[in-house]
């Protein structure tokens, strides 16, 4: 199925060009010039990538991002904006954006960013947002030599334990699923793959954001901050520690901590 893209852009000089380029790339594009309409469209499901301008006529794009994340949207949010200040970039990442492009940008760069997200599978396997929905049972492994074994079942996890299932791209604390964005999951999965080991900032940036990423590394700090808050809110015994001068480490607190 062709990727479903929602373009939220009110500039009549920019929107048609973007729509044409996206459709030429094979995407199915829905366009809206307002934030309220964008929130309603995302709530209806199907959307895999949101291209979001910040300067909208009704509500600010940051508020749109905040609302769709609060509503359970876990696909990709790529912000497009004429605001180029670092503060705006950090705020956008703090409210759940996955990536950021400042205007003017090249169409080839935009399309490359979208291809990268889809290639990693962030937006092609949407997960249920209903917390009462039962998680799917992983398919049996065909061979013992498979490189990636199925993740632990949330129904058999120890009470309160953090488990990360890379096949279904879901994370659980005990039996409760964590609501994670695509990049939040990717960062958590990398840390969990070597739980207790220090993972460098460079490794996280290269594997999650792409080795050709030229933006501020504060995008990583913002993602780590959101993960820490979600782990704390869920009462997970696992926590993300900063390894000064190196990167981060996912570790379990001792039972009497």
Automatic annotation (TrEMBL):
SMART domains listed in its UniProt record: REC, Trans_reg_C
Residue span(s) of domain Response regulatory: 4-118
Domain OmpR/PhoB-type: 153-252
Composition bias type Low complexity, residue spans: 123-146
DNA-binding region, residue intervals: 153-252
Signal peptide segment: none
Keywords in alphabetical order: DNA-binding, Phosphoprotein, Two-component regulatory system
GO molecular function: DNA binding
InterPro entries xref list: CheY-like_superfamily, OmpR/PhoB-type_DNA-bd, Sig_transdc_resp-reg_C-effctor, Sig_transdc_resp-reg_receiver, WalR-like, WH-like_DNA-bd_sf
SUPFAM superfamilies hit by this protein: C-terminal effector domain of the bipartite response regulators (SSF46894), CheY-like (SSF52172)
Region of interest (Disordered), residue spans: 122-160
PANTHER family with a match to the protein in the record: PHOSPHATE REGULON TRANSCRIPTIONAL REGULATORY PROTEIN PHOB (PTHR48111:SF40), REGULATOR OF RPOS (PTHR48111)
Protein name: DNA-binding response regulator
Source organism: Terrabacter tumescens
């Amino acid at each position: 199925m062709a990727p479903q893209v929602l373009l939220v852009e009110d500039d009549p000089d920019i929107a048609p060009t973007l729509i044409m380029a996206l459709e030429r790339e094979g995407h199915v594009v829905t366009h809206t010039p307002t934030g309220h309409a964008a929130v309603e469209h995302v709530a209806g499901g199907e959307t895999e990538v949101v291209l979001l301008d910040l300067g909208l006529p009704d509500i600010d794009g940051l508020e749109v991002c905040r609302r769709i994340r609060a509503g359970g949207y876990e696909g990709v949010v790529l912000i497009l904006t004429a605001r180029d200040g670092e503060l705006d970039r950090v705020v956008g990442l703090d409210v759940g954006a996955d990536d950021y492009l400042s205007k003017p940008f090249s169409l080839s760069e935009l399309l490359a960013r979208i291809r990268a997200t889809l290639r990693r599978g962030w937006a092609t396997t949407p997960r249920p947002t209903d917390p009462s929905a039962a998680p799917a049972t992983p398919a049996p492994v065909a061979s013992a030599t498979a490189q990636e074994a199925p993740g632990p079942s949330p129904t058999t996890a120890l009470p309160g334990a953090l488990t990360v299932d890379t096949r279904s791209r879901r994370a659980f604390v005990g039996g409760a699923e964590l609501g994670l964005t695509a990049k939040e999951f990717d960062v958590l999965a990398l840390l969990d793959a070597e739980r207790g080991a220090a993972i460098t900032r460079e490794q996280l940036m290269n594997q999650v954001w792409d080795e050709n990423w030229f933006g501020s590394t504060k995008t990583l700090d913002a993602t780590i901050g959101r993960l820490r808050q979600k782990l704390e809110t869920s009462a997970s015994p696992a926590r993300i520690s900063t390894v000064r001068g190196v990167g981060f480490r996912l570790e379990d607190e001792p039972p009497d901590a």
